[in-house]
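Annex B.
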Amino acid sequence: MAGNLLVGIVGNNCVVIAAEKFYENQNTICSLDGKITVAWSGYSADSMTIIDKAKMYTNTVHGLNSPANRVAEFLIDPEIRVLNNLPTLPYTESFMVASSDNNGQNLYVTDTYGTISHVLASAVGRKSDLITNVLVENYSTANKSILGTVEFALKTLCVISEPDAKLIDVSVTAFNRPFEIVDSSIVNQFLSKIEFSRIVNDAVKIDEV
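Proteasome subunit alpha type-7-like: predicted structure tokens.
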């Protein structure tokens, strides 16, 4: 899939999603009810339509106790698509759905064929296979505190994405904390740290040659 890249990671007490943006005002992440976070990659008009329906669904059916897996199921429900005149399989977008509550930290990923996966770390969008492999290789040794997970997500995203805070959204979904989008100035600090580490590592490699 060639949509914008999303990187989702389950931390010790949080779920972090880092989303690439193709332009500064692009919407990529939202909260349904303050507890469920949804990010999307693909055709934005279709994504926003089905997400608006999901917001209504969570409020009317589950109130403020919507389980993340039910939200993921709703987002790919073919009957909902037909009723709202949206493309059926294959879909034009993929989703990440994150939650952090009494049931722990959960991250669900959907693909364009309507499959749902319950994961600890994954990527969707362009070059997602490559980025998912990077996540798998580094997940067990990564610092998974909130700040550590944010840094891990950004570092992984920037394997292929431009390290520009204006073109990246980062969400944190944590237990007993309000949903938040990390301020761009903080994202920029992380990106500067990541870039500095790359420069140092490259210099070390040159010295070793």
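The radius of gyration is 17 Å. Residues 6-208 form a domain with the Glutamine Phosphoribosylpyrophosphate, subunit 1, domain 1 fold (CATH 3.60.20.10). Further annotation is deferred to the next reporting cycle.
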